[in-house]
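#lab-general

N.A. 3:47 PM
ok so I finally got the sequence cleaned up, no stray characters, all 193 residues accounted for. can someone with queue access submit it? mine expired

B.Y. 3:52 PM
send it over

N.A. 3:53 PM
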Amino acid sequence: MLTNQRIEEILKDSGTLMTGHFLYTSGRHGEKYFEKARILQNPAYVSEIMSHLAAQFKDDNVDIVIAPAVGAVILGFELARQLGTACLFTERENDKMVLRRGFKIPRGSRVVVAEDVITTGGSVQEVIDIVKNAEATLVGVALLVDRTGGKQNFGAKTIAAYTTVAASYAADDCPICAAGDVPLVKPGSRNLP
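B.Y. 4:20 PM
back already:
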């Protein structure tokens, strides 16, 4: 079982957990940013963290791990590999999460949803809706990072490798801006050319 200290060390060492002054996709500002793609460059770290999460679901008779594309596909695959299950992923089509590529969730399957970082949990909820519409059983949700401090309730066992509260501020009420000594950076992949 990994300690929180070890998980934070992995997140910092991989460049996943960054501190500074960030412009989030929502337009809000904050001092913590999780560049989740950075951990995916290191298979040993992914394996170590997914082993920790897999241990939490080993006795739940999981049939399928499903993850929203693109960010969580590798995490979902590694979790499925460690649990010895199938792995599926969802994709956005016309701004809606769907199963494509001939993927199907058999009725009655026992499913774990894997996700990288949650702030509102919207993508996870969309995947849960797909699981429920397939008349499958949601066993739980496995997260790399939960930015809500554990406040998100998906109606099933939810395990995060790392849980934190990452404060965010309206642009005109940002204490980091007010201090004026840390430049604002917009990380991430949205709206890239």
